[in-house]
Write a sequence for this structure.
């Protein structure tokens, strides 16, 4: 029986399960989620073999160079050249995609090449709320793009898994649309009454959960499965109150704006601006929150995720 460390957390316990997967490839690694995966792999005691996939054209060359200096394996690939992808994925067991929205379409050729290369599991890039195109019509196009690799994986017989973590607080709260970007100046803007709660999970805790289940759950419990996870459940009023308690000072200036203003933005805006306003409306009305009865947190009993207050 050997000692095992829980990925990304200061917990230790004993286990006698050998990791089912050792060789990973990360696509979209230069983004915030991808970088958290690389750091977790870098500091893991389990000796993972990790390959970073970067695009020959349009890739983040500086990022790739920095990780090469650390001794990381970096493979330049052309997503339009299947042979290039198959070669890069040779002997890889798990492909983790952290590609962002503009690159979602690249995941279909990635999946096809992964199957040909003998990859055993594909982790789809979702990393967000449980909202679908059925819930939010403005999300339909993006939803179709991020679901396309799953349909392709099923078509070619490649097992897949996806993780829906709610909202990243450290990423989203500084965005002006969320109304919390000026907390440091003791100002906040809240749509509606501010009492509707939302699902939040930090990026580091999301990565910790993913690596734990990939290490400890049998392959049949991962196959073609969506994990819904949640680190914290907080409303915008609660977030302001938490900030006031954590950083005492002058009174807060909180502006409450009626929901019809946000609804008007959804109606009159177009493109990305309309999509963001539509998602924000879903957040403040509770539609982006996880169903608390169907959470999969229990798949990692020792998981101790950070609360929203920890990133304020």
């Amino acid at each position: 029986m050997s000692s095992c460390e829980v990925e990304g957390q200061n917990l230790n316990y004993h286990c006698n399960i050998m990791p089912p997967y050792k060789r990973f490839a990360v696509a979209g690694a230069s983004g915030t989620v991808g970088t958290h995966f690389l750091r977790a792999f870098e500091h893991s005691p389990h000796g993972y073999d990790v390959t970073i996939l970067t695009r020959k054209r349009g890739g983040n060359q500086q990022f790739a160079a920095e990780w090469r200096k650390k001794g990381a394996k970096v493979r330049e690939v052309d997503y339009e050249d299947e042979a290039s992808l198959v070669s890069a994925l040779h002997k890889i067991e798990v492909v983790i995609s952290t590609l962002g929205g503009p690159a979602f379409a690249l995941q279909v050729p990635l999946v096809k090449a992964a199957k040909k290369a003998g990859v055993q599991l594909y982790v789809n890039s979702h990393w967000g709320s449980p909202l679908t195109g059925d819930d939010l019509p403005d999300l339909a196009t993006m939803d179709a793009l991020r679901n396309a690799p799953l349909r392709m994986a099923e078509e070619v017989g490649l097992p897949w898994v996806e993780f829906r973590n709610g909202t990243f607080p450290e990423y989203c709260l500084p965005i002006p649309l969320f109304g919390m970007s000026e907390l440091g100046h003791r100002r906040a803007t809240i749509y509606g009454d501010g009492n509707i709660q939302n699902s939040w999970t930090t990026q580091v805790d999301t990565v910790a959960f993913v690596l734990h289940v990939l290490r400890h759950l049998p392959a049949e419990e991962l196959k073609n499965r969506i994990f819904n996870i949640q680190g914290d459940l907080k409303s915008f009023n609660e977030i302001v109150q938490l900030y006031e308690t954590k950083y005492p000072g002058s009174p807060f200036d909180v502006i409450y704006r009626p929901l019809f203003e946000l609804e008007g933005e959804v109606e009159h805006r177009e493109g990305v601006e309309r999509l963001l306003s539509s998602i924000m409306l879903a957040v403040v009305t509770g539609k982006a929150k996880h169903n608390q009865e169907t959470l999969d947190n229990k798949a990692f009993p020792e998981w101790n995720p950070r609360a929203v207050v920890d990133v304020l």
